[in-house]
Amino acid sequence: MREVEDAHDGSSSARDDTAVASDAGATTANERARVRVVVRVRREAHGDGRAVRAEVGGVRVLERSSRTRTGGREESFVAFRGACAGSGTTQRAFFDVSGTKALLEKTLDGYSSAVFAYGQTGSGKTYTMLGGRDRATREDVEENDDEEDEESDEGVIARSLRFLFDACEKRNASDDRAMTVVTLTYYEIYKEKIIDLLTNEESSCALRVRWRKQEGFHVPNLTSHECASAEEALDLVHLGAARRQVRAHNLNASSSRSHAVLTVHVDRHFNVGGEDDGAAGKDSVRCVRGKMTFVDLAGSERLKLSGSEDIATRETSLINKSLFALGKVIATLAEESRDARTASAHVPYRDSKLTKLLMDSLGGRSMSLMIACVTASERHVEETIRTLQYAARVTSIVNAPELHHEYTSSSDVEPEFGRDRELEELRRANQALRRRVSELLSNARVDDHCHPRTASPRAHDVQQGVTNHTSDVVHRVERVETLLRKYAEENRRLERENRALRARREIADIERVHALDDAERLRIRVDDLQRAFFTV
Predict the structure, then answer these.
(1) Which CATH superfamily is domain 4-410 in?
(2) Most buried one in 123, 194, 251, 315, CB count within 10 A?
(3) Region Disordered: what ranges (predicted)?
(4) 269, 286 Cβ separation under 8 angstroms
(5) Is 384 annotated as a binding residue?
C-alpha cells in the first residue's frame, strides 16, 4: 500500500538535481551482508512532465492529480527509502557515494563482489556503467558537471579499474612479498546465448554455462586477458563494449540488446615463508583470489512504446523473459528474508542463464551492489515504480560473503612469481655491492690524500689490502650483473613460450567448442532421420 505524504512543491524539487546518497557507507564483510542498493534518477525528457524526484534518503513519486496541478500542495508517496542520486549528480560524485570503492577493497582482500545496473531501457544504465559523451544521458549532468579532465565522463567500470590498480600499487609498495595478477573476461548474453566479447567476431560462438561446486555457475573457455595497468584493461573494456549488440528504437537511440558481464579477477600471492597459520613450509605462498563482476543488464521495455519489429521483437521478448526470471529470484529471496518459514523455498535460479550467473550475487557468496536506474519522465512512471519496487525487495536480500584464499608451495605458483623474486634479490645484492665499492674507493682516496708521503709500510699494506678487496668486490658485482642478464633473458624466453602456449590453448579450446557444436548438430540430424525412418 502506498504511503501518501504532503510536501510543498518548491522546497523539495530543488533538491532533486543534487540529492545523493546520505548513507554511502558500504557493506562490510561480515558473516552475512545485505545487498546494497542505490537509485540513480535520470532527468525527464524534454517536453515531458516530471513524476519522480530524488531526495536525500529516498525517491518520491508524485500522484497523478499533483502532476497537472500548477499551484498549492502536492500529493506524493515515497516509493523507495534508501540511498539515491539525483539527475544532476556527476559521474565522479556518483562513484564516490555508491559504495563501489569499499567493494573493490574487499575484492583485494579476497572476496567476490558484484555491481549490477537494473532498470528500463533508456534509464541510463550503460551510461552509469560505461560513461561516454556520445550518450544522450550526458544532458543530465552537463549543467552541474564541474569536472574538466578527460576522465570526467567515465562510468563506474572505468573508475573502478583505475581505483583497483592504484590500490594494488599501494598495497604492493607496503609489502615487498606480494605479487598481484589482474585478468579480465567479458561476455554478453544475447538471445539466451553467451558470446565472448574479447575474441575475434569470426571465431566467436555461443558458450555454455557449467556448474562446479567450488565456482558455482560459470562460463568456461572464456578468453582471459592479463592486464598490467588500468589503461590496458580499459582498452579491452572498450573493445568488448564496441562488440555488444545495440539497436535503436522509439525509446532509446542506442539500446543495449544484451546483458553484458565483465569480470575482473585479482590474484595476490604472498611468500609467507611459514609465518602464517596454515602455511605449508618455509617456501609457502598464500594465494588470495578476489573477483569483481560488473553487470550491465539490458533494459526492460514495452513493445507498444518501443515500436520494435521483426528481429527486435524477438530480442525484446527474450530480454523481458530473462528479466522476469530475475524478478522471480528477487521476489523469492526477499520473501525468505521476511519469513523464516520460507527459508527452504526453491529459488528459481535455473530459469535463465542470467539468473544462473547472478546466483553468487543474489543470495550467494558475494558482496553486492545494485544500481537501480530510473527516469523522472511522467510517461514512464509505471516502469519507474516497478523498478523501485524491485530495488526495495533487493535491499532485504542477505548474502554470505566468503574469503577465498589458500596456501601452496612457491613451486606450484606461476613461474613468473619465483623468477621475479630472484631478479629482485639479485638487484638488491647488486645495489648493496655497488654501495660497498663506492665506500671503499672513497675511503682509499681520502686516506691517500691525507697521507701522501708519510704513509708507513703498514699503512701501505692496509691500503694495498683495501685495493685488493675492492677489486674482488668489483669482480663479484660483474658476476652478479652477468647472472642478472642471464636471468632476464631466460625470463623473456619463458614469457614468449608462455604466450605461445596460451595462444595454442585458446585455439584448441575454440576448436573443441566447434567440435562439440558439430557433434550436437549431427546428433540432432541423426535423431531427425531416425524419426523420419520409423514414421515411414
Answers:
(1) Kinesin motor domain (3.40.850.10)
(2) 123
(3) 1-27, 129-154
(4) yes
(5) no
